[in-house]
User: Fold this.
Amino acid sequence: MEKLQGIVVDIQHSVFENQLEALMYVVKDVYAADTKFIFSIPAFTFSIAIEEENYNWHLEEQFRLESLFQPERKEKLKEEMRRIIKHWYDF
Assistant:
């Protein structure tokens, strides 16, 4: 058995422009059939799983009908998620 590893990202500035304190927890699930990134924002009871392969498409599909966030914040959140996936090994 291996320990699960993940990161915590402060998204107060990058997504919420200092209007709200929020952390995003990110785990890379390498044990699934298709490697996935699991993003969770407890302040909103929000979580989402994005497949690593074709992650841009998966992000757009997952957020297409999502109504929890305002459009501008939704775009910033997607950009933050893309940055994390793209630079996962830099963390």
Q: What stands out?
A: The chain has two helices and four strands. The CA atoms of residues 42 and 86 lie 23 Å apart.
